[in-house]
Structures are given as structure tokens and as C-alpha cells.
């Protein structure tokens, strides 16, 4: 059973499951866990690890259209190195500062593998679910896609400074807040654009028609990809970019683009059923914990 199958099973017993974060009387709560073997390639600094781990949870807050308020983290490692621990906390604090939230502490634990569990909090009276997309809406993404895929290639090539820079994404909290006024559905792209579209389609009982040339792929992908097919795969399916995937009524798109502080690109249209790109089925492929 992989992560998606497990979540589907649990959702049957948890009425409020299914979105990027839980909402309790206006309080937004989300939690994540990252491991050295699967999430932090060789060369990842502890500063980047702190930034990225906490940023992943802040991204879930952003996807709900909420204001981020605070975050905590559990830091587990075989041993505690003074400089590594300080660097981690600095990264966690700086990513919170970037979205006007506060890093307020956490817990320490011994573990045979460097592992981080993070929780972020936010506030909203009008959360944006995954379930509101309607036929005719525009589907858009913030920023660019493929940064993490490019970073992984750079880590493998020993270009650690550049790779760490690409790994430190800015959680789209400000964009999520700005888009909340117009969005009908929203989630983050941590599992990749392709998989996110399938998840939105399932939640909203709809489909998508995507224009391949419209997908905003990061310039860094061009530096490391061997051909157009690899470039497309990095942009569509690798995931871990933490951009927002959002649907907006067509007649409100211009206002949403104007209001969004991050570049917002229309990549397609909501339709009644099916998920296609350039007239062909878009495979439900992306990042999933537990994949073989």
C-alpha cells in the first residue's frame, strides 16, 4: 500500500480529510515528515533542510488560502551536532520570516536516520478546498515547475551550492491569500503537476485539458535535461516544487493574475471529465511515498 492508497483508506473514517490541511474553527493545521534517504540528497545543508522541511508545511497552509502564523519541528538524528542544529533552526526560522510567520520551537529525538517532522499553523475564515472546480474555469499554476528535479541533478553532479539554492523554495502564502478571493479549488504541487491535476479532478468530479506549451518550466531544467521528453517529465511529474495549482472562473482570471504577487500562468481549462494534455491522456504520475 502506497501513501495515496493509505490516505484513501483513512479518509473513509475521517470526514474532514482530503485537503492540504485541516481546518478547526478557522485554525489551519498541517503536518509533514521528511527523511534523509528520500528527501535530503547528499550535499543538502542543514540550513536548507530546515528551510525545506518547514516550508513544505507552510505550503499546505498556502494551498488553503490561509495566513500562516507559526511552525514547529521535530529534529531527529543519530547525534546532535551543534553547528548542524543551529543551521537547521536558522533555516526553519528564515522560511517562516519569509511568509510573516514565526518558528516557535519543537522537539529533539535520537534516530538512526536524520528525520524531520514539521507542523504549521494558519488562520482563515474562508478556506479554499480541492473540491470546487467547475467546467469552464481556468486552471493555473504559480511560479515555475521543475526546480527540485533540476536541483537533484545538480546534487548528483556535485554542484551543491546551486542545488541548495534551488531546493529553498518560497512557500506561496502571499499568493494563496491573494488568490483566495477568486479561486474555486486549490492545492500545492508537491506531488507534481500531473498528479495534482488528477487529485483535483477526483475531488471536484471534473477533468482538465492542459496545453503543454503553456506549462511554465524553470530555466534550471533546461540546464540539466538531455532532451524535450526529459524536460517535460521534470516539469510535469517530478514534483516537490510546492507551487500552487488553482482553478479560477474564466471571467475573474485577469483580476486574479493582477492581484497575485507571484507570476500566475494559465495552463488549461476545467472540463467535464478526463485529464489530457494536448489532446492525449496525461498519466497520473508523480511523487508518492511508498512507491516501489
Automatic annotation (TrEMBL):
Keyword Nucleotide-binding attributed: yes
E.C. code: 2.7.4.16
Reactions catalysed according to its record: thiamine phosphate + ATP = thiamine diphosphate + ADP
Pathway: Cofactor biosynthesis; thiamine diphosphate biosynthesis; thiamine diphosphate from thiamine phosphate: step 1/1
Keyword entries, A-Z: ATP-binding, Kinase, Magnesium, Metal-binding, Nucleotide-binding, Thiamine biosynthesis, Transferase
Binding residue positions for ATP: 106-107, 130, 190
Residues at which Mg(2+) 2 binds: 32, 60
Role played: Catalyzes the ATP-dependent phosphorylation of thiamine-monophosphate (TMP) to form thiamine-pyrophosphate (TPP), the active form of vitamin B1.
Family indicated by similarity: Belongs to the thiamine-monophosphate kinase family.
Record-linked PANTHER family: THIAMINE-MONOPHOSPHATE KINASE
Extra facts: Reaction mechanism of ThiL seems to utilize a direct, inline transfer of the gamma-phosphate of ATP to TMP rather than a phosphorylated enzyme intermediate.
Protein name, as recorded: Thiamine-monophosphate kinase
Organism annotation: Natronoarchaeum philippinense
